[in-house]
């Protein structure tokens, strides 16, 4: 029975807000299950990767409202991210300074939390012209930049 599950097609849904999503079930810890897909992100007028922490029933109205708030707050979120990025990059380039965030960094992904515990813990990932081999992930608590991870 377990071997046959390897060949099971993942559940896909067509969400009226987020579009086509694939459900990634974590059987041994269902609260870690999530949807993934590409969603249109209006601040950059492009699609980005999206991970939505949810059950098979799909994203909630609260998660959709949260995504809209992220879009509306994007400029403020990048301003809050700037000091974390500059401080981290100064470990490699002593006098590093971001001159124009939108020209130097591009959002490529977002994780939308379950909206069940507060503060909300979520993240946004960016590519940068300063290091094309790494992604920069900013961790947020509610709408405050709380940490940074550079991964390559």
What are the secondary-structure elements, in order, as H or E?
HEEEEHHHEEEE
Give the strand content: 35-45%
Strand order of the largest sheet: 1-2-3-4-5-6-7-8
Mean pLDDT: 93
Radius of gyration over C-alpha positions, nearest whole angstrom: 17 Å
The profile of the biggest β sheet is:
8 strands, mixed
Shape: elongated
The helix-and-strand class reads: alpha+beta
Return the domain count: 1
Helix content: 10-25%
- Separate helix tally: 4
The N- to C-terminal Cα distance equals 37 Å
| Topology, number of strands | 8
Report low-confidence residues grouped into runs of 5 or more. Answer: none
Question: What do you see in this structure?
Answer:
With 152 residues, the protein is an alpha+beta fold. The chain has one domain (9-151). It has helices at residues 2-5, 61-72, 74-89, 101-104, and strands at residues 12-15, 19-24, 34-41, 46-53, 105-112, 121-128, 135-141, 144-151. The mean pLDDT is 93.
Task: Give a concise summary.
The protein has 152 residues and is of the alpha+beta class.
Q: What topology emerges from the helices and strands here?
A:
Blueprint: H1 2-5, E1 12-15, E2 19-24, E3 34-41, E4 46-53, H2 61-72, H3 74-89, H4 101-104, E5 105-112, E6 121-128, E7 135-141, E8 144-151
Parallel strand pairs: 4-5
Antiparallel strand pairs: 1-2, 2-3, 3-4, 5-6, 6-7, 7-8
